[in-house]
Amino acid sequence: MEKEKLTKDRSFNPNRPYHRTEIDQAFTQRKALMHQEALNRGKAYDGRELALYQDCYTGKTLRGGDRYDYEHILSAEAVFDHYKATHTNEQIAVIVNHPDNVGTTLRTINQYKGKYDLVSRILGDPAKMAEFDIDAALTKRNLQKAQQAVFGNK
Q: How many other CB atoms are there within 10 angstroms of residue 36's CB atom?
């Protein structure tokens, strides 16, 4: 009975549907922090008040005004599905938005990848790798960092 009560109180329902409210709130906070850091880098780089990022898949420089998006390297839905039986929505939101799982990339790449797995959608497709000018080594390093941050030593 006590274990059942704990499960209900902490919302560890393995059958609950994907829910983004808390993830989006944490994502908004993460993006604001990243933007402030990028503004500081831009100012240090050339004295201009323009954000300065490195694309997490191509390695190219992105500046404020470029068409870039903030990106979950491991999809929010996949992480939610992995943890929904053991974590609350709030706890999952923190995990999904770990700094090593959020990067910036060109909008075209982000829109193509969507919620899908990075390996099957891009890394496993030589034509898309070429089309988007993906730096395979950089992308794999960033994917490994995200996996470590999100899943630990699986």
A: 11
**Nearest partner of 147 among 126, 122, 117, judged by Cα:** 117
Q: What is the pLDDT of residues 51-71, one digit of tens each?
A: 999 999 999 999 999 999 999
95: which 2 tokens?
A: 């995990």
Tens of pLDDT, residues 76-122: 999 999 999 999 999 999 999 999 999 999 999 999 999 899 999 99
Q: Which two tokens stand for residue 103?
A: 């990067």
The C-alpha atoms of residue 124 and residue 44 are separated, in whole angstroms, by 37
| C-beta separation of 101 from 74 below 8 A | yes
Cα angle 107-133-45, degrees, rounded to a multiple of 5: 70
Give the predicted TM-score (pTM) of the model.
0.89
Q: Give the span between the Cα atoms of 85 and 14, in whole angstroms.
A: 4
DSSP, collapsed to helix, strand or coil, labels residue 68 as: strand
Structural contact between residues 103 and 145, judged by C-beta atoms closer than 8 angstroms: no
